[in-house]
UniProtKB/TrEMBL annotation:
InterPro entries: AAA+_ATPase (IPR003593), ABC_transporter-like_ATP-bd (IPR003439), ABC_transporter-like_CS (IPR017871), ABC_transpr_LolD-like (IPR015854), MacB-like_ATP-bd (IPR017911), P-loop_NTPase (IPR027417). The lineage of its organism: Bacteria, Bacillati, Bacillota, Bacilli, Bacillales. One of its GO terms (cellular component) is membrane protein complex. This is ABC transporter related protein. Residues 2-241 form the ABC transporter domain. Residues 270-319 are annotated as: Disordered. It comes from Paenibacillus lactis 154.
Amino acid sequence: MLRLENVSHSFKNGSEVLKVLHNIEFEVKEGEMIALLGSSGSGKSTLLNLMAGLMKPTEGHIYIAGQDIVKYSENKLAVFRRKHIGFIFQAYELIPTLTVRENVELPLVFQSVPRSKRRKKAMELLEITGIGDKAEMYPSQLSGGQQQRVSIARSLITEPSVIFADEPTGNLDTKTEEEILRIMMTLNQSMNTTFVIVTHEMEVAAQMKKTIMLRDGYLVTPGEGSGPEAPRQPEVIALAACEEPVVHKPEVVAPAASEEPAMHSPEVIAPAVTEEPGARQPEVVVPAASEEPAAPEPADAAQELQAVPSGPEKAGDES
Ligand SMILES: Nc1ncnc2c1ncn2[C@@H]1O[C@H](COP(=O)(O)OP(=O)(O)OP(=O)(O)O)[C@@H](O)[C@H]1O
């Protein structure tokens, strides 16, 4: 469902060109959960931004369900992201003035989904992620692990084709990290949602069935179709399948840390919604930009949410 072909990327800084990704090729199948591993500066965030359609590569093709998103216009990419991509960030990126439930509902507000429908779906997901009882609280009243559960629920509410999680446990202690990973693995299995988890932590990668490793912008995962330029690292061994989320150290030698500064997380993007709350999207079908209903601006969406009473629906509610 996600395939990269010969993807390279360079950043220009005045007359200097810095090539940070070199001929990356791999495939992620529908329902897979993979770790994108590498030390600081190896190119993980850049690659994530490319796969999520937040940036275009200098060279190569990125196919999602057979569609090359590199060829999309900016408008079409924005539509694509809202419909098909979910994000989970290290810093949760919740809106502090909205309740937990309102935060989870927000992507559906952008899609003009009726209030009662989005509320029902948000509550279902909060129950699944184990924080249904926190629905009317504000993010600041929650622990880090609980906030990340909210973020996971929010990423799932539109039933995206793929969820990109950028260091999702980076701010959490070991026990909470395991809880969050277990939730994501359970959701991956029960909803067949594809997850790509960016991490520099071996413990996180060790729990994934498949790992893609970057080193200085080259793919070094053995047996996964790295490009012809990619140096094979004899010390890197493919991570074994791990049914239980038990932390163990794989025999992977971490590349040396780079001193380059890290990129910032990309904007929070609200994907689209399918009509039936329980329905899975069988395959990605990317419609033309014109098919997208006009979504409210984020500020309007937040205002709309804040106007929502937390009690029972009033008579005359649109649904
Ligand atoms: N906008 C930019 N302009 C110039 N160089 C950049 C830009 N963004 C990233 N880089 C460089 O690209 C390389 C890869 O950066 P990237 O943030 O993708 O690495 P990373 O593996 O995600 O690191 P970290 O784990 O620290 O977030 C680094 O050398 C970085 O300095």
